[in-house]
Amino acid sequence: MALEYLPGFGNDFETEALPGALPQGQNSPQRCPYGLYAEQLSGSPFTAPRGSNERSWLYRIRPSVRHIGAFRRFDLPFWKSAPHVVEHGLPLGQLRWDPVSLPDEQLTFLTGMRTMTTAGDVYSQTGMAAHIYLINAPMQDEYFYNADGELMLVPDHGRLRIATELGIMEIGPAEIAVLPRGLKFTVAPLDGTARGYICENYGAKFTLPERGPIGANCLANSRDFKTPVAAFEDRDVKARVVVKWCGQFHETMINHSPLDVVAWHGNYAPYKYDLRTFSPVGAILFDHPDPSIFTVLTAPTGEAGTANVDFVIFPERWLVAEHSFRPPWYHMNIMSEFMGLIYGQYDAKEHGFAPGGMSLHNCMLPHGPDAEAFEKASTAELKPQKLSNTMAFMFETRLPQLLTQYAADLPSLQPDYPACWAGLEKKFDGTPGVK
Ligand SMILES: O=C(O)Cc1cc(O)ccc1O
Ligand SMILES: [Fe+2]
Question: What is the CATH number of domain 5-22+33-42+60-275?
């Protein structure tokens, strides 16, 4: 059966899986319909200003306190949290990885999580981690929530079914899903195997960037964000609930599914978004604008314009700029750039940056088009050109991203990535004129 979604970003949604299950006119009736329990899930402090105040009211078979027994600590050795400093011995430099092979061993969303970088500090709720996931088995009667941050899933291979307390979503390559901090969910691959990228955002929630003079439309439009309708499981089974809390993992056994929310309302909810619905705005006469024009979602900090994380994409688009070098310019950036490619080719690196691959251009490390891309773009006839069938993205954070041992040891780490710039020869010979 096709899944149903509610359109809109940050709306005050309401949805019920059984008629009359959602109380009307108040949040906390003396007795709720169907004998449900009322529970508030707060994603912001109670006193946050209206514009950033987020909470939902859940009407559920059992309250969450019954979905937790005694905790026992355990380890997921490949899922790291900031601060995480390892002496992996790799010298400072720009880094790039080929795609990681899909696993032979059985891996679930939890056991298949592989942290590439961490930034900031999970204890002070700043920074992020960039992970990849490798999945070939469903979480079986197993549920998870993350107290450390929200999770943005960016698949590059295979679809996923994500059943959450607030409803069910399915996503595949070119779509993303965002799972709020504290929300219980379980994940299953729909095509046998699945691989993708994850941004674990420890800071303030992702929100839509301001459009400024662009006006009321384009970039990511609110109606293209989809939140699932209410769906519940009334299953009495032995189940495991896993919690990530300040970088540690805790498990607890219960006798029923915690996905037992029959109705809910509010604005703290999971959502998905199809990156192909992003309407890019760009240079229509000359020059190459800053990539911030392609920000899908931004997780702000208290400092204006200085994101904890920006999620930026490089979707298909027309290049029309006249008398301009059209690909990204050479640059050094105070923000740290973790990039992935979902499909196609990236114009600054047509070769060597493969779908499913990754690159890391950390704080103040120079980078830009490789020698091949430079040569091509400097001599190309500048007629309108469509960049088709391409979707790269960037997790860009204000904080330096530190590499995990896993990332440093990956066999797919390219041994001499910076050699891609070696062919950028001196052209200057002291004589005037365009060379
Ligand atoms: O480095 C990159 O490839 C990402 C990027 C793209 C762009 O168009 C401008 C700046 C930038 O960091
Ligand atoms: Fe960059």
Answer: 2.60.120.10
